[in-house]
Design goal:
Elements lengths: L1 E6 L10 E9 L6 E7 L6 E7 L4 E3 L7 E5 L5 E6 L8 E8 L12 E2 L3 E3 L2
Antiparallel strand pairs: 1-2, 2-7, 3-4, 3-8, 4-5, 6-7, 8-9, 8-10
């Protein structure tokens, strides 16, 4: 199993920036893809973007201009840099892992963190 722990969420003013982190542990050798999602109560979990084992990133089109996904060289820490934050970015943010990147959809990811709250 893979364990994921997110951090970095907080309250921020509109126009501000945040960087979220997600540390992976356990069977990290099984990770072929990591992604970021967010969810507002009552709505479906929304894909933000993903990064595969080759470092190739994919983003939801509406967020690509403001959000950037990266990871460390050890491939065990995932980052989400969020700029020019807007009130509609308020959500619980989750990282997720899977064996390979397919579509940016929650049901294609096996392992999930507990989430970190971002309030704008």
């Amino acid at each position: 199993d893979v364990q994921l722990v997110e951090s970095g969420g907080e309250s921020v003013q509109a126009g501000g920036s945040l960087r979220l982190s997600c540390v992976a542990s356990g069977a990290t050798q099984d990770i072929g893809c990591m992604g970021w999602f967010r969810q507002v109560p009552g709505l479906e979990r929304e894909g933000i973007g993903s990064i595969d084992s080759d470092g190739i990133t994919t983003y939801a089109g509406s967020l690509k201009a403001r959000f950037t996904i990266s990871r460390d060289n050890a491939k065990t820490t995932l980052y989400l840099q969020m700029n020019n934050l807007k009130p509609e970015d308020t959500a619980m943010y989750y990282c997720a892992a899977s064996t390979g990147c397919t579509v940016l959809r929650a049901d294609t990811y096996r392992d999930w963190g507990q989430g970190t709250q971002v309030t704008v």
